[in-house]
Write a structure and sequence with these properties.
Elements lengths: L1 E5 L4 H13 L4 E4 L7 H6 L7 E4 L2 E4 L1 H11 L10 H22 L3 H6 L5 H21 L13 H21 L3 H4 L4 H9 L2 H16 L4
Parallel strand pairs: 1-2
Antiparallel strand pairs: 1-3, 3-4
Helix pairs in contact: 1-3, 1-7, 1-10, 4-6, 4-7, 7-9
């Protein structure tokens, strides 16, 4: 039995969840919040990050590693090409989105979504990095129609869950959607992916989690 531990508000949780749903793999979800001090959580995810798997009681953390295990354990339907080089290109794009776009934009989330404040110096640092990195992403991504090419892949599991946050956070904090400004039509892309049943399930669960947090 696979248990996906985390929360539907987490884009990294949803990155893994989208892959599970696309593959039609049976799994359960268990709500685990970030920064938990529960010894059982720390034994599974030493930094108390989500998501993580429990696979027949055995823990596995880090979303990219989780997706690699999933692809190896459940290769059909494939989310990476059979050709080793093309498979590496899919992972290249997914890694680029995670490390050079989402993790950079993450410094804006506190102000964009949680009522915090980001200093002007931090804003300018993020603006500079994102502007450079989005331009580089434009040279790497395909959007034909999926982010790595003609077929839905693991790279889309990252792109679909990360790009909206990057675009919205930059607009709310920096005053402009840096993705759209650079010519990345992330809204059109997310509409395409959003028509897939697995993506609709991810979005519906995320919305339900958001609604549950609103004051009654």
């Amino acid at each position: 039995m696979i248990v996906l531990c985390g929360m539907s508000l987490s884009n990294y949780h949803n990155k893994v969840k989208l892959a599970l749903l696309e593959k039609g793999v049976a799994f359960e979800e268990r709500l685990v919040l970030t920064k938990s001090t529960d010894p059982a959580v720390l034994a599974a995810s030493p930094l108390a990050k989500v998501p993580y798997f429990e696979i027949d009681g055995r823990p596995l953390c880090e979303s990219t590693v989780m997706l690699d295990w999933l692809e190896a354990a459940y290769p059909d339907p494939p989310l990476i090409p059979a050709d080793p080089f093309e498979a590496a290109k899919v992972r290249e794009i997914a890694t680029f989105i995670d490390l050079h776009l989402e993790l950079v934009a993450r410094d804006l989330y506190g102000q964009a979504f949680f009522g915090g404040t980001v200093s002007e110096s931090s804003q300018e640092r993020v603006r500079k990095l994102l502007t450079r990195n989005i331009a580089a992403f434009g040279r790497l991504a395909k959007f034909s129609p999926y982010v790595a090419g003609a077929q839905f892949s693991l790279a889309d599991c990252s792109a679909f869950n990360h790009l909206p946050l990057i675009g919205l956070a930059s607009k709310l904090v920096l005053g402009s959607d840096l993705l759209a400004e650079a010519g990345v039509d992330w809204k059109g892309y997310c509409k395409l992916v959003g028509d897939r049943p697995a993506a609709q399930k991810v979005v519906a669960d995320r919305k339900a989690a958001q609604d549950s947090m609103k004051p009654r």
